[in-house]
Automatic annotation (TrEMBL):
GO-annotated biological processes: fatty acid beta-oxidation
Classification via InterPro entries: ClpP/crotonase-like_dom_sf, Enoyl-CoA_hydra/iso, Enoyl-CoA_hydra_C
Family: Belongs to the enoyl-CoA hydratase/isomerase family.
Protein name per its UniProtKB record: Enoyl-CoA hydratase
Pfam families assigned to the protein according to its UniProt record, in alphabetical order: ECH_1 (PF00378)
Nuclease among keywords: no
UniProt GO MF annotations: lyase activity
Entry keyword set: Lipid metabolism, Lyase
The keyword Lipid metabolism is annotated on this UniProt entry: yes
Length: 267
């Protein structure tokens, strides 16, 4: 799996590590970065050897969102080869930012430094979130005369309490990592410089679980989120019952009884 000039892709065991690599711009989005992210999500879904994905940023920053300097200057370079990809798929950038695509594998965010605007929006498309103690968050769009169109007006109130979501959306203020943890935007704080280490530890814990069960649990959580309780419970059975018919469902209890590590084979 190849990256691009602004996205580094590495494999660590069963974990795919995606590193936004534009540190001179605090990893603000570029077309090559978005193309790389889009392709990485799709390829990770298709690769059964990948059981988890870690998303992080280079140079002590996560992502500053849209490149406002490029936008003010009229956009990205006309000769950027990534433009052809965007022209062929007008929703490519939304898929890259996890607005129009949800990977079937768990995505763990490792946040250091700034994670603002589009960075905070993409963060909402991840499943587990770890942040360094000096990280900062926020949706600044209303202060720039813009709109957080990456999904925040829909997702944020579903992920954190209503009043906190509206405060973040309507004031456009910056949030500390401690505040982000307290309102539930991120799950845990770690010393600066160790977010990736902690994210990889969480990824390894995911990797040790049965992949079919993990993917079914994630699918059920998201597919039932907007349903009534009765509808959600019905859908949960539809997704969950088939897991019990798999060989992996037999291997887990067998390995427990035999006091050994299970060997899951995705069938």
């Amino acid at each position: 799996m190849a990256g691009t000039e602004h996205l580094i892709i590495e494999r660590q065991g069963a974990t795919l590590v995606l590193t936004l690599n534009r540190p001179e711009a605090k990893n603000a989005f570029s077309l090559p970065m978005l193309v790389g992210l889009h392709d990485a999500w799709i390829e990770a879904d298709a690769d059964d050897a990948v059981r988890s994905i870690v998303l992080t940023g280079a140079g002590g920053a996560f992502c500053a969102g849209m490149d406002l300097k490029a936008l003010a200057g009229g956009g990205f370079a006309e000769n950027d080869p990534a433009r052809a990809r965007l022209a062929a798929d007008p929703e490519l950038h939304w898929k890259a930012m996890l607005r129009h695509h949800r990977p079937r594998k768990p995505v763990i965010a490792a946040v250091e430094g700034v994670c603002v605007a589009g960075g905070t929006e993409m963060l909402q498309g991840t499943d587990i979130r770890v942040a360094g103690e000096s990280a900062s968050f926020g949706l600044f769009e209303v202060r720039r005369g813009l709109f957080p169109i990456g999904g925040s007006t829909v997702r944020l109130t579903r992920q954190i309490p209503h009043t906190h979501a509206l405060e973040m959306l309507l004031t456009g203020r910056r949030y500390t990592a401690a505040e982000a943890r307290d309102i539930g935007l991120v799950g845990s704080l770690v010393p600066d410089g160790t977010a990736l280490k902690r994210a990889l530890e969480l990824a390894e814990a995911v990797n040790e679980a049965a992949p079919l069960a993990v993917e079914a649990v994630k699918r059920s959580v998201y597919e039932t989120a907007a349903l009534t309780e009765a509808e959600g419970l019905k859908r949960e059975l539809e997704i969950g019952w088939p897991v019990f018919a798999t060989e992996d469902a037999k291997e887990g209890p067998r390995a427990f009884a035999e006091k050994r590590a299970p060997v899951y084979r995705r069938h």
